[in-house]
User: Fold this.
Amino acid sequence: MTTPPNAPASTTGTADDSADAPRPSHRLDPAGGCPHAANARLLAQGAVTPVTLPGDVEGMAVLGHDALKEFLAHPDVAKNAQHFTELQEGRIPDGWPLKTFATVQGMTTADGADHRRLRSLMSKAFTARRVAELQPRIEALTQSLLDGLDAAAADGDGVADLRRHFALPLPMGVICELLGVDAEHHDRLHHLSNQIVATDIGPEEAMAANKEMVEVLSQVAAARAAAPGDDLTSALIAAREENGDRLGPHELLGTLMLTIIAGHETTLNLITNAVRALCTHRDQLALVQAGKATWSDVVEETLRWDSPVSYFPFRYPTRDLTLDGTTIPKGTPVLAGYSAAGRDPQAYGPEADRFDLTRGTRRHLSLGHGAHFCMGAPLARMEATIALEQLFVRFPDLDLALPEPELPRHASFVGNSVQRLPVRPQGSGQ
Assistant:
């Protein structure tokens, strides 16, 4: 295993200076949980920290806002797992829960010309015009789902799981419509996505989830090849057939997998986290309802304050890289610590951990930075803004049915949210 590098506080300290001792590795909890207390403790020690991943694989995490922004756009940082030393040396087993993040073929694991080629193929689905055209469909779907949430609450003594009945089916329905995925696959694809992003999963379960995801997406691709439509999957297949070297079969399936996971899991967490934030900060909700802040303000502050992704795998330095005084050795798997960067006091001041719609700055890194900035960001922002506005217009007194600390957290240190969100649409919650 890679030995965690030293993380000196200063380059001018003497040899016996205790500040120059190696920084202890932070063992990431595979069961996930709320990341913010650990993030604050780690940030107080520095912007970059060694971490121990499941299976005792040693890596690094970049936590500080400015350090992460530099790292995400650094020319000597790669996404392709050919730069992952332990993987290339055969020391990462097939059932490692994070292996899919490293080995799946698609935009998130491509560099240079390959990345530009794949991003160009995908960009047609996320143009400003195409996203704008989706607005009426998103608004209609939102209204339908709110009817379903109301009905579910009526059947559940006034309580319904907002995540299951509203926050999930909205982005899943939209991304699957973009891809041409039939509704019969939606529930299964969400379950498999959960398995793939889980970090507490066993080797057999991890491999089974990946195998089944490939099988389901192969069925989707076969259906679109047999009956092409006005969807992204049909367009990707057509691009492959026009020029065989443009998109290989593994890249097609990998692209579909990444698009489905990223296209619904992050927006699902964003909507869920925003509702939690507003319900536990009624003064901030009142600002929006009084017209003193906007729903767009809610989306951006939620992205900063409670990022949908906590630690995203992986990037690899292509040479030994010094970042904020800490050396990250070549070939180390590095996590992007989005939830930590969003509450970095160095970037947001001493009240960085306060949910504040009047903060006056929208800069955050929760949708990425540099060449790999999230292509679906405009769509995610639109979905979340429409969802939140219509939700609280329909149910202005909506409240949590459980105290915030009792909400069950995601079993992952990648995704950052709760497993379910029981609410009382008509208010009178906890």
Observations:
- Confidence is low (pLDDT under 50) at residues 1-19.
- The two ends are 47 Å apart (CA to CA).
